[in-house]
Amino acid sequence: xSFHVRPYRAEDRAAMAEVYFRAVREGAKGAYTEAQxxxxxxxxxxxxxKPDKLLxxxxxxxxxxxxxxxxxxxxxxxGYLDMAFVTPEAxxxxxxxxxxAALLAQARMAGLARLTVRASILARRFxxxxxxxxxxxxxxxxxxxIYETYLMSLTLGGxxx
Length: 161
What we know:
By secondary structure, this protein is of the alpha+beta class. The protein has a domain at 3-112: 3-Layer(aba) Sandwich (Aminopeptidase), CATH 3.40.630.30. The protein is 29% helix and 32% strand. The chain is built from four helices and seven strands. The strands form two sheets. A four-stranded antiparallel beta sheet has the order 1-2-3-4, sandwiched between helices. A hairpin with a 2-residue loop joins strand 6 and strand 7. It is globular.
């Protein structure tokens, strides 16, 4: 799959919502119950009544050769990795590692010493491969469902304490 990574823009919101929806509903199928998947990603459309939180974060998207978004990753200024989703057809490609490289470069440029994430069962594997550590398994309640998640962190070498 050929693609390029670029910063997220306001006009990406609908495409990002579709990536999120498909990553959860299709990509996480089998790891979660149908009720969990439906609660996690109830609709493909973004909630247009709420502000776009990604405009207040560092966020990157992967765009394929047909102009379709294939992945998204975002980081807030505290070092919390908020969004990390790829479409099912992008799983196992270089999309997630490429988005992660952009995120890591930004974190280092911003002088962040430590990154954190609440990772899903599936995302945990990706982050472990990137050198993150599991700090705690956490049963997270959201939308009436309980999810097994992992609070993880990464200490960035060379960053100030």
